[in-house]
Records
---
Amino acid sequence: MTEQTPSVPSTIPSTRVEQTDTPELWASLQRPLPDWYAGARFGIFIHWGAYSVPAWAEPSGALGLVPEDVWFAHNAYAEWYFNTIRIAGSPAQQRHQELYGGAPYDDFLDAWSAADFDPADWARLFASAGAEYVIPTTKHHDGIALWDAPGTGARNTVHRGPKRDLIADIADAVRAEGLRFGVYYSGGLDWSTSVFPPHTKFDEVSGLRPRDAAYNLYALRHVQDLVHRYSPSVLWNDIEWPDAGKRGGPDSLHALFEEYYAAVPDGVVNDRWGDTHHDFATSEYEYHLDSEDSGAWENTRGIGFSFGYNQAEDESQSLDANGIAKHLTDVVSRGGRLLLDVGPTAEGTIPGVQRRALEGLARWMGEAAPVLRSSSPAPAGLVQPSQTGWVRWLATPGHLVAAVDGGTGVDLGVGADAVDVDGLRVLNGSAELRQDGGRLTAEVTPTTDGPALLVLPTR
């Protein structure tokens, strides 16, 4: 690939505030977490791009559980196809040569049709599954924009491939269903704007990236454009932000955050902008779990091992409705929220494995969603880990709620004197309670794909 210099128009004005790069400067951006996000429990991520055409990665395992010396050459993320095919000897490179003759990656942009894309159908599916916000990728690491982004010329979906503003279509559809809309943007990596060798180690992801003023301006204009076109409730950046933008001045990241909060007062930003500012932290599969230790946080993962659609995955590598419901409950029981990803096909359909999982989740969320949204983690010390089954505890006003995966003689991990057993109400299942040495056990039978919820008044 030849090196390209970003072309950045000046049609969108910057916020003209002089700044310096100091901790006090970033501290000036701190604000209370907006009520909508503080109360949110479940969002949908969408990874859709030119990588959805080859739609292939080795389903090697979940991020954080695969050794680093294995991960990159055998990357389970289909959206990293552009990087993986450049790693000498990788199975993806070999397959790319065999199937496509080593064709340039951008050929996939032209082959991306989105012919069957029905944004209203997507939005109905997400809403029925209990999602409260939806975040599509607007530009992933391959640098291809899903809207007519400034400075991208024809390298976007308006001029090539689908030939439409996919971001506007998704935004309009999810808002019509009453959901919040956010945007993902890869500010840390853009493999089209500069020449770096492929990433083969985790420290290279943050090390081999564009840091210069030209790329900062390029990325800044993109995010400004997203803010003013779509008024997103979430700015979800990935990897990092160019270092030149952290030095203060009118085209700095600080100025961008101020501009965003002025345009979207109840908007939130994630923590992947480097050591700068964030409203909430993120973990990914089993990676960066230390982000869950304090403050507002969100776990993100795909239904399978990949975010982008991976035709090599099947049910055995994917969460079903029960798996999603349990993971969501676990995250919420620890004070977080789940951003669950779907990876549409190049034609624009939600793959069957993913659709079936969300449709099954919808049946469970019919009764579970109000509980999850009104809940907080159970008070420390009041409940203990179960010794005999899968149990997660939530607290709602005046109640403790045990999410139980089912079974006989399940230790609930709570004393009988802490709750009013006679006031038991069961959602998505049936249950009988017994006392065993002062602790409660239960026989639980879920009636949907997901744990039964045992709602118990507190004493």
---
Amino acid sequence: MRTTALLLVASLASALLAGTAVRTLASSSASSPMPSPVERGKYLVASMACNDCHTPWTMGPQGPMPDMTRELSGHPAGLSLATPPVANADWPTSASATMTAWSGPWGTSFTANLTPDRETGLGSWTTEEFLAAMRTGRHQGRGRAILPPMPWTMIRNLDDQDLGAIFAYLQSIPSISNRVPEPLPPSAQ
């Protein structure tokens, strides 16, 4: 009987604690404001490491690092690169020192300018065109294919709200005029 009473008290205490935890979580989520689309987009861009490829890298005191003065501006226009190394089974792809040019079986691709520059970036794009590009793997949803290493096949799984937040953030950053070169086919490497 004593064991039954202890189990009953323990069960009631557990239920009380669980109820308190649920109420606490519910009230804290209700009282904490939802981030703005720009704040949510900034979080997603950072957590998905967009700067790792779309921001040119430079050598810092601790080694290579993104040059945030050129945040998300893509491969630097006019930067001449040596011919990429010949790919082999162990190293099928290679990247430039700026981390903005990549070569592989598809040829050489250059990371896009994601800033809101109207001439060289995404400034003339609509939210719908951005969503279509991320869903289809084609520029503005209808242009040329988006090439590796862009992980659009994973990004397309984000919901419209998150993709829209990413686009809102990209439209809020400083505009940088930087015309990225067109990709090179494998024969031009």
